[in-house]
């Protein structure tokens, strides 16, 4: 069942609550709704941090490209497939492959090969979520065709001005939003989100997200 989306002013009102008793009532109500529609089951999802190499330089990120204090790694194809098989054999329903953003063909083909291999070792049953940043529509399609079905691409803030403050030149809010559009068009289940508590963020920014 789908709930009607709260209006901007309703969201602002909820986000503005500071009274402890009102907050408690809000959290209790949220839990009731969650329990009614999702239940109390816990779903395991195996997350594999595939690589911390990234071409981007987001100011808030520990693995931003200009941080020379980070030891960079990429997990081998064989190791990832081995871990994915283990997840499948333990009864996991899906796994997430996550890593920094790189768009060169050797890398995007490597992800494609991995998705095929994971589908293969799990009899096609293990769901695969990817999170490798902004890519072309063709690459998103290639990964979907290989067997991925969900994609996580956080937009971090719904305020383009704030986005600009958090990123150096060459990082585009518009491109981020365009990439989310590509993912929807291609047919992924798309997850996105914003960071809470950013310096300069307003409650209206959160309500707009
Ligand atoms: S794109 Fe992601 S991984 Fe890369 S620097 Fe930005 S936040 Fe970090």
Question: What does this molecule look like?
Answer:
This protein has 8 helices and 5 strands; from the N terminus they run ααβαβαβαβααβα. The chain is of the alpha/beta class and 209 residues long. The protein folds into 2 domains: 1-41, no CATH class; 43-208, Alpha-Beta Barrel (TIM Barrel). Strands 1-2-3-4-5 form a 5-stranded parallel β-sheet, covered by helices on one side. Strand 2 (94-99), helix 4 (105-121) and strand 3 (127-131) form a beta-alpha-beta unit. The radius of gyration is 19 Å and the shape is globular. It starts with 7 loop residues before the first helix and ends with a helix.
Write the layout of secondary structure elements.
Layout: H1 8-15, H2 20-37, E1 45-51, H3 77-89, E2 94-99, H4 105-121, E3 127-131, H5 137-146, E4 150-152, H6 160-166, H7 173-186, E5 189-191, H8 203-208
Parallel strand pairs: 1-2, 2-3, 3-4, 4-5
Helix pairs in contact: 3-4, 4-5, 5-7
Bound molecules: iron/sulfur cluster (SF4).
Iron/sulfur cluster binds next to loops.
> Which percent range describes the beta-strand content?
5-15%
Shape descriptor reads globular
**Average pLDDT rating:** 95
- For the biggest β-sheet, the strand order reads 1-2-3-4-5
Secondary-structure-based class equals: alpha/beta
Whole-angstrom Rg: 19 Å
Order of helices and strands: HHEHEHEHEHHEH
Short recap of the structure:
This protein has 209 residues and is α/β, with parallel strands linked by helices. The chain is 44% helix and 11% strand.
């Amino acid at each position: 069942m789908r709930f009607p989306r709260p209006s901007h002013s309703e969201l602002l009102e909820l986000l503005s609550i500071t009274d402890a008793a009102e907050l408690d009532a809000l959290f209790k109500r949220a839990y009731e709704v969650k329990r009614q529609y999702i239940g109390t089951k816990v779903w395991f999802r195996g997350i594999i941090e595939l690589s911390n190499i990234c071409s981007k330089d987001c100011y808030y990120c520990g693995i931003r490209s200009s941080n020379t204090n980070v030891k960079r790694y990429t997990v081998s194809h064989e190791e990832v497939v081995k871990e994915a098989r283990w997840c499948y054999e333990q009864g996991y329903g899906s796994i997430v492959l996550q890593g920094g953003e790189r768009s060169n063909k050797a890398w995007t083909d490597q992800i494609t090969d991995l998705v095929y291999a994971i589908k293969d070792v799990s009899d096609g049953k293990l769901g695969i979520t990817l999170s490798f940043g902004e890519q072309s529509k063709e690459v998103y399609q290639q990964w979907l065709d290989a067997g991925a079905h969900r994609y996580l691409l956080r937009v971090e803030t719904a305020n383009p001005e704030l986005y600009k403050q958090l990123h150096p030149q060459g990082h585009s809010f518009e491109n981020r939003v365009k990439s989310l559009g590509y993912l929807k068009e291609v047919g992924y289940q798309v997850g996105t989100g914003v960071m809470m508590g950013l310096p300069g963020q307003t409650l209206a920014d959160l309500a707009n997200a």
